[in-house]
Write a structure and sequence with these properties.
Shape: globular
CATH class of one domain: Mainly Beta
Largest sheet: 7 strands, mixed
Distance between the termini: 29 Å
Helix content: 25-40%
CATH topology of one domain: OB fold (Dihydrolipoamide Acetyltransferase, E2P)
Number of strands: 17
């Protein structure tokens, strides 16, 4: 089963795979150890696996440590306030507590944004190395996020439905943005040699290791079934380094932090429109991102939109399970200005069934709360939302 979609591929945001694999410079040779290989993933993700790990994980890990320190400061200030009741130090203790609470709130907002940015970088890196169509014996790559439909724990084998992307042609490329026409081939895949001990049927899991296609067999009921098995590759070392992330929070806690860290407006029911945003950004069309006008517009987007509710009509590309237990939305808006703008984010809990029904549909009504908005060059808007829902 296959279908077509026309999408913009953002190598830095993980909206889809690049047709160009990450490459190593000429200084890398057959004797280079996997841990010493130099990876050039994009303009700001490059280096040895340990260096790429720092570029992806370092900032969020530092912010998580700062958050822990500021949580401790709030606790200390709260204890001091209790001790200061009915003393001359009461007002000072109140002030200290408020200062500590404000600092913690600022840090948690920074943690939420850093988490979303890290997720984009991990997705972008993973997408560089996904297994692609055609799935001929010998083809290899990562499987990424998959959902087992059956598991044989004794045989260490799972069965999944895998979406293999086939790049038909590149429409254009500029500033790291590629517009590509893709065909999606949904196939049944038998994956052997996996550690299935913690896996459950219907629960998404990530297979960030290299697999090779072993065979293609025809099944009367299912059609072609592809068998794959692990095959050691340098990319295993890269992905292991990236996934070595020291996160003291579980995925649900982080998802809740992201949800509650969206700046709240005075009017909680304030709505904005995509037309208003695009009209406001039009004056910086084609301007250099380093120009003063472009930077002012980025500042306006950052300060004005987060926390606003938005309703728009968009083409839904994909609804996928995310690492944090939420479902992720990827959609585009063609605003009639010659540009395709991206909407991405997480679904409202319980909205995944509506999302799956909307997948591949055009002109679908989407609502959500804006958590981030920024521009790429050529005025392409990238809008991140949470609590997205469909219909109407």
């Amino acid at each position: 089963m296959s279908h077509l979609l026309l999408s913009l591929i953002f190598a830095f945001c993980g909206f889809g795979p690049s047709t160009k694999p990450a490459s190593a410079p000429a200084t890398t040779n057959a004797t280079t150890k996997p841990a010493d290989r130099i990876w050039n993933i994009n303009s700001y993700l490059h280096g040895k696996p340990s260096e790429v790990r720092e570029q992806i994980n370092g900032e969020l890990e530092r912010l998580m440590q700062l958050r822990a320190a500021r949580q401790a400061a709030v606790k200390d200030a709260t204890d001091e306030l209790r001790k200061s009741v009915r003393t001359a130090k009461l007002e000072g203790a109140r002030s200290d507590l408020k200062e500590a609470q404000d600092a913690l709130k600022d840090t948690e907002t920074a943690v939420a944004r850093a988490y979303l940015w890290r997720r984009r970088l991990v997705d972008a890196t993973r997408n560089q190395f996904l297994l692609r169509w055609p799935l001929k014996p010998g083809a290899s790559g990562l499987l990424g996020m998959v959902t087992p439909v059956s598991i044989d724990h004794d045989d260490r084998t799972i069965v999944i439905q895998f979406s293999a992307l086939e790049a038909l042609r590149s429409e254009d490329e500029h500033e790291g943005i590629r517009r590509q026409k893709m065909r999606v081939h949904d196939v049944i895949m038998v994956v052997s040699g996996v550690n299935a001990a913690q896996m459950k049927v219907g629960v998404p899991t990530t297979l960030d290791q290299n697999f090779v296609v072993v065979s293609r067999e025809m099944n009367r009921q299912l059609g072609p079934v592809y068998k794959v098995k692990p095959e050691s590759d340098d990319v295993d070392v890269l992905m292991k380094a990236i996934n070595d992330f020291h996160d003291p929070m579980n995925p649900k806690e982080m998802a809740q932090l992201v949800r509650t860290s969206v700046p709240k407006k005075v009017d909680a029911n304030r709505w904005t429109s995509i037309d208003r945003i695009l009209a406001a950004t039009q004056p910086v069309h084609d301007q250099d991102p380093d120009s003063a006008d472009f930077k002012r517009m980025e500042s306006w987007l950052d300060k004005t939109l987060p926390g606003d509710r938005i309703a728009l009509r968009a083409d839904v590309l994909k609804v996928l399970p995310g690492d944090d237990g939420n479902y992720e939305l990827h959609a585009t808006v063609d605003a009639g200005d010659g540009l395709v703008h991206f909407i991405t984010g997480t679904l409202l809990p319980g909205a995944q069934e509506r999302g799956k029904r909307a997948e591949g549909e055009k002109d679908v009504r989407i609502t959500g709360t804006i958590i981030d908005a920024h521009l790429s060059q050529e005025n392409t808007l990238i809008l991140e939302v949470i609590d997205a829902d469909f219909g109407g």
